[in-house]
Design brief:
CATH class: Alpha Beta
Number of helices: 13
CATH architecture: Alpha-Beta Barrel
Shape: globular
Largest sheet: 5 strands, parallel
Oligomer: single chain
Low-confidence stretches: 1-43
CATH topology: TIM Barrel
Structural class: alpha/beta
Radius of gyration: 21 Å
Strand content: 5-15%
Length: about 425
């Protein structure tokens, strides 16, 4: 079992999760749910091309995605890099709590883009669960619950709106297996390929699997949209990456226990891990995900005594803001936050991420070059930078400012080393 306590630097251990009926990324077992700049439009968005149905009509090609930032450009000599912030959501299932629409509205209000890692099973009715053949597990098995028909419809609505608003639709795969011989930690590259193919098919064939003909298609080609994901429990990345590379994926967000530094590629794929961030009141750091903060506050309980909630809400908010501030004021490393649509401990973690996003938006409004982007938009920026600039950014440790300031650091003549804040 992986040790998550007192540091929260890696994903939740499977044994501790099982004791609570939880999966290791924090989705309740048997529960239903488990900018780079540019203008934002209205809530509905607008496809840029007449819809061309794909396959059975579950998805459709509608042209260029609306509400995208301007094409990124290389940093100029002496230019300070932007502060990128990526809010991401594991599972992305709407189960009647209104959290999907809540955060779409919040993002719209503050010019933010996000990444939604959709679980393929959230578009598959439980009556059709035997269509799912998970590697090393019984047919139809899943360590997260299947959604009700009503919740599948709400999830389809949320995913459709998210894409029209300019957000990215990635994948959280399917059955979320974290323990035993069937764990994703033990899957081969070929088994990851099977899991991905099935996740894609559940998105691309929801109309066939549900029999519904009265709902609009998802307005994107998922074969082209899908360029990255996050594995359940942050496990199995090494064997996933060869398959991801073959599929043309551009990044993976599954590494556990990353630090707040500029990323590198691993096996040809950008490695974008959740990060250790300051945890107010403690000498250790916590992983930048809602469940890991919960695990350190309430020893994994999602329904702890409510008198704790105000203090824990403040602590969670402060942790996110400390992670943002440390990067913004020093090495400008991108700041990654992972979440689930959940109401653990009275919904305090949803409140914390909302408060953090609003604070970060205010920094942007003050004139700082702060960009709340999706993972795909972030790697778009990385891919146009020169190798020399990337190497200098990657040389900066956590909390370290460039020696002599950004102007000299990225001119080519500055020192690679920096100084601690």
């Amino acid at each position: 079992m992986r040790d998550f306590s007192r540091r929260g630097m890696i994903g939740l251990g499977a044994g501790a999760a099982a004791a609570l009926g939880l999966t290791a990324c924090g989705t309740e077992k048997q529960d239903d749910a488990g900018h780079a700049g540019g203008s934002r439009g209205g809530a509905s968005g607008a496809p840029t091309h007449p819809a061309r149905p794909l396959g059975d009509g579950s998805t459709a090609f509608t042209g260029k995605q609306p509400h995208q930032p301007e094409a990124p450009r290389p940093l100029e000599p002496g230019e300070t890099p932007p502060q990128f912030v990526v809010f991401s959501w594991d599972g992305a299932g709407e189960v009647g709590t209104g959290l999907f629409s809540r955060f779409l509205e919040l993002a719209r209000d503050h010019g933010a883009h996000m990444t939604f890692f959709l679980s393929g099973l959230y578009l598959l009715p439980e009556s059709k669960k035997r269509l799912y053949a998970p590697p090393n597990n019984p047919r139809g098995a899943s360590d997260i619950g299947y959604l009700t028909d009503a919740h599948i419809k709400e999830t389809l609505k949320g995913v459709r709106q998210a894409w029209l608003d300019g957000h990215e639709i990635g994948t959280h795969f399917n059955g979320h297996f974290c323990a035993g011989s069937g764990s994703v930690a033990n899957w081969t590259p070929a088994q990851w390929r099977s899991e991905i193919d099935q996740a894609k098919s559940f998105v691309k064939e929801w109309r066939t699997n549900t029999g519904w003909s009265d709902l609009p298609a998802l307005p994107f080609d998922y074969d082209k949209e899908l360029v990255g994901g996050r594995t359940p429990c942050l496990l199995g990345q090494d064997n996933l990456l060869p398959t991801a590379r073959e599929l043309g994926w551009r990044y993976d967000a599954s590494s556990p226990g990353g630090r707040q530094r500029w990323p590198h590629k691993k096996q040809g794929i950008w490695d974008l891990p959740l990060q250790g961030i300051p945890f107010p009141g403690h000498t250790f750091e916590v992983l930048s995900m809602d469940y890991n903060i919960l695990a350190n506050q309430s020893v994994n309980s999602t329904k702890a005594p409510s008198y704790n909630y105000p203090g824990w809400r403040t602590q969670a908010t402060s942790s996110y803001l400390a992670g943002f501030k440390r990067a913004y004021e020093t090495n400008r490393a991108p700041f990654f936050v992972g979440n689930h649509f959940e109401e653990w401990n009275g919904g305090i973690y949803m409140d914390a991420v909302e408060r953090a996003l609003k604070h970060i938006a205010r920094e942007k409004e003050k004139g700082g070059d702060v960009r709340m982007v999706s993972f795909r938009q972030f790697v778009d920026w990385l891919d146009v930078q020169t190798p020399e600039v990337l190497a200098r950014l990657q040389s900066l440790d956590v909390g370290v400012k460039p020696a002599g300031g950004w102007k000299g650091f990225l001119k080519g003549g500055g020192k690679s080393a920096g100084k601690a804040a």
